[in-house]
Amino acid sequence: MIGVSGAIGVIGAGVTGSRVVEHLVATSSIPILLHDQDLYGAQRLAAVHRSHNVAISVVDFETVATASVVVLACGSPHAPLAKKILARGASMVSLSDDVSDVMNLLKMHDEVMAKNKTLVVGAAASPGMTGLLLSNLQTNFDEIDEAHVALHGTGGPNCAVQHHRALAGQSIGWHDGEWLRRPGGSGRELCWFPEPVGAYDCYRAEMADPVLLKKAQPQLQRITARVSANRRDRFTARLPMLVPPHSEGGMGALRIEVRGFRNGSRIVEIAGVAERVAQIAGVVGATTAQFVHRGKITSTGTCVLGQDSLPNAEILREVLTGGIRLHQFVGT
Amino acid sequence: MNFIRRVLMVLGIAGIAGALLRVRGKSEPSSQRGGWRPLNPPTDPLTNQTSSQN
């Protein structure tokens, strides 16, 4: 998978992009090519890490596409960028969490396969980390048939805008062999996240997790995804964002509840993570890119974290050694 | 005028009913007990694929 320059490219120098770069700098000495429309922001991020042992250069789009693998950590849509980068012969890791964008990226499977490249779709927090947790929990079961995801918090401003849109959109859920669409903001459920986040009311939202978890584990019969929201979030969801989003959300969390059978008994396992969402997304995206760069992800075409052909346990181990702490819910 | 009176009366009754439910309503305490415990990263991929994790 080593490309023309042997470097890892990162598109996006925002909150998530900077976490991707931080993790790459901290864990490897692979050169980094950084590109952002905001040239000043990209140069500032590069300058912060220039004292380290890693060569980090701010480059134009043409040059970043010469990297062996490019991390798309900018705002959506990623599909048009992915087409351009693929034409220049690089593998990609997309951190997009927008449903239509994710669907368009998945449609590129044949093109990516024809180029003998890899496109990892949704390698962020939710989706991304949820796929790794699903794969990890699956080892505790003989058979799994349900996965229910909940997310609290947002990463950078683009993520906050996506969260706002998701509550106004149509949630997608897989239910006994068919895709069900329900209005975002409905279906309240009190979800407990790992401390210090605690309990939040979560609602259906237009999230990409069900689509990607279904691709990862096709045997699942029921998949839902919810996001935490308060009354103001739901009331203003269908309006334009009235105030600009925060530069970065506070402490976030995600959890996945997996149901299935073990030794003939019905069991439920819940795993979760409490961390800033951009930090989770950055570490997962960077780790996945490193695996593609090292040739440890050998699948060509589009793939998603959690599918059996990927080294999910190894990726999760590296993500956890990158400072993300995993928790499991125990109780009744 | 009559219409406004009716609307106000309906809103008033709804408000009183809502307030009564809010103040006097009882919720069942959750029977669920439990908490979160830290999970260690999988030490070996092969072990992780074949055995359950603590």
UniProtKB/TrEMBL annotation, chain A:
Gene3D superfamilies: Dihydrodipicolinate Reductase, domain 2 (3.30.360.10), NAD(P)-binding Rossmann-like Domain (3.40.50.720). InterPro entries: NAD(P)-bd_dom_sf. This is Semialdehyde dehydrogenase NAD-binding domain-containing protein. It comes from Acidimicrobiia bacterium BACL6 MAG-120924-bin43.
